[in-house]
């Protein structure tokens, strides 16, 4: 028989092995339940995909299928744009895919060349109403991708120079696209009429152009009224408003002149009334003087008459007065 200690150790090992097998089986069952709920399978085969290194960060290795998207995001990140600013940016090229609008792509070197050309054409000293050379940026700046960077990185003169460049490029593109419509095709049309050959698309467009012009000339002689540009319409609106303002200004002037005339007339009337009042008061004083003089003259005459009479006459008059007073008293009784 063996040693009892060895038998006990073997049994302990077997019991621990059984416990580990039960634990692994439970873990496998739990994993199978999780995969079933997620719809996954245990038989996964890893497919090796081609990777490419990012040109902006050598530590980045990205799959080939998403390298362009990673390049755009990594370039903006290197330029200092945050994740919030990148989320607000949109690719505007999608809007011009199926349209005839011509777009312009501006890179760093082209932007710097445009600014340098505008700076060389600007005056050296500061002048009123014109940007001078000190208002342009001398160092090349990255092309801004949003309005905030355009305002912070570029000056007002830089933005105006870029705007003028884009407008000039657009005009050149429009003129080059319309050159074929202004070609003199009279000789070609005569030759084609003689040879009875089928007309090209360019010739048909020229004929349609002439036909539309002819119809328009017969339809409306007053083209300057029927078809007006935006500038002409705005000019008419400005003229109407300026005429209205001039009319109101004239009315205000007329009212002011009327008020001045009325105030002047009022002053004249006041002066006239004051002079008439003074004249009336003077005439009243003169009349009162004349009356007082008449009274005094009458008193003097009476006095002279009294003095000329005798004392008997005075006594007789006194008696008469007494009799009259007595009679009046008796009548009152």
Walk me through the structure.
The chain is mainly alpha-helical. Among the domains are: 8-44; 52-93, no CATH class; 108-172, no CATH class; 211-251. The chain contains eleven helices and two strands. A two-stranded antiparallel sheet has the order 1-2. α4 (108-121) crosses α6 (156-177). Residues 215-220 have low confidence and may be disordered. Residues 248-262, 305-315 have a biased composition (Basic and acidic residues). Residues 248-333 are annotated as: Disordered. This is Small nuclear ribonucleoprotein 48 (U11/U12). Keywords: Metal-binding, Zinc, Zinc-finger.
Alpha carbon gyration radius:
59 Å
Form type: elongated
Total strands: the figure is 2
Structural class: mainly alpha
Q: How do the strands of the widest beta sheet line up side by side? A: 1-2
Written as H for each helix and E for each strand, in order along the chain, the element string is HEEHHHHHHHHHH
What's the rounded overall pLDDT mean? 77
Helix content range:
55-70%
Number of helices: 11
**How is the biggest beta sheet arranged?**
2 strands, antiparallel
Distance between the termini: 192 Å
Please indicate the percent range of residues in DSSP E strands (runs of 2 or more): under 5%
Low-confidence stretches: 215-220
How would you name the oligomeric state of the polypeptide chains in this document?
single chain
Domain CHHC U11-48K-type: 51-78
Keywords: Metal-binding, Zinc, Zinc-finger
GO molecular function: zinc ion binding
Region (Disordered): 248-333
């Amino acid at each position: 028989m063996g040693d009892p200690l060895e038998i006990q150790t073997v049994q302990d090992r077997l019991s621990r092995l059984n416990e580990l097998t039960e634990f692994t089986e439970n873990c496998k069952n739990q994993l199978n339940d999780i995969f079933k709920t997620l719809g996954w399978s245990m038989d996964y085969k890893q497919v090796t995909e081609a990777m490419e290194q990012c040109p902006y960060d050598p530590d980045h290795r990205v799959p080939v299928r998403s390298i362009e998207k990673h390049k755009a995001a990594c370039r903006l990140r290197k330029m200092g744009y945050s994740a919030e600013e990148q989320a607000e940016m949109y690719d505007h090229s999608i809007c011009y895919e199926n349209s005839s609008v011509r777009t312009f792509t501006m890179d760093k070197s082209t932007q710097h060349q445009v600014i340098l050309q505008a700076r060389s054409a600007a005056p050296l000293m500061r002048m009123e109403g014109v940007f001078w050379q000190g208002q342009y940026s001398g160092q090349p700046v990255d092309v801004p991708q949003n309005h905030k960077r355009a305002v912070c990185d570029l000056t007002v003169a830089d933005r105006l120079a870029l705007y003028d460049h884009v407008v000039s490029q657009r005009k050149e593109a429009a003129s080059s696209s319309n050159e074929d419509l202004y070609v003199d095709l009279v000789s070609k049309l005569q030759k084609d009429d003689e040879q009875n050959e089928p007309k090209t698309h360019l010739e048909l467009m020229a004929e349609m152009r002439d036909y539309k012009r002819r119809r328009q000339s017969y339809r409306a002689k007053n083209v300057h009224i029927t078809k007006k540009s935006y500038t002409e319409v705005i000019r008419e609106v400005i003229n109407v408003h300026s005429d209205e303002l001039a009319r109101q200004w004239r009315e205000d002037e007329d009212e002011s002149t009327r008020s001045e005339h009325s105030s002047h007339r009022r002053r004249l009337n006041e002066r006239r009334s004051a002079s008439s009042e003074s004249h009336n008061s003077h005439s009243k004083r003169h009349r009162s003087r004349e009356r007082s003089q008449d009274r005094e003259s009458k008193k003097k005459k009476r006095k002279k008459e009294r003095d000329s009479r005798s004392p008997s006459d005075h006594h007789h008059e006194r008696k008469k007065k007494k009799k009259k007073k007595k009679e009046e008293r008796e009548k009152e009784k």
